[in-house]
Write a structure and sequence with these properties.
The chain contains two helices and four strands. Helix 1 (16-29) runs antiparallel to helix 2 (49-55). It has 65 residues and is an alpha+beta fold. It is globular. It has one domain (2-55). It binds zinc ion. The site of zinc ion has 8 residues, from loops.
């Protein structure tokens, strides 16, 4: 998945593996957004959970949490 930085427009790549790891964090902490830092301007970009689900459609919440 590729998004563009909200602040400088620089492309940010999120691999499926990264998206899955992000969804785990969101799920465990009850968050709606995952934040990634832009390598160019170093600002934090909020990635909505829904967008991550599209990048990692096979992700499932872990059992027993
Ligand atoms: Zn940026």
């Amino acid at each position: 998945m590729q998004i563009h930085c909200t602040y400088c427009g620089s492309p940010l790549n999120i691999s499926r593996k990264q998206a899955e790891a992000a969804l785990d964090v969101l799920h465990e902490n009850g968050l709606a957004y995952y934040e990634i830092r832009c390598p160019r301007c170093r600002k934090m970009n909020k990635i909505p959970r829904e967008m991550l689900r599209r990048a990692a459609p096979r992700w499932q919440p872990k059992e027993g949490q």
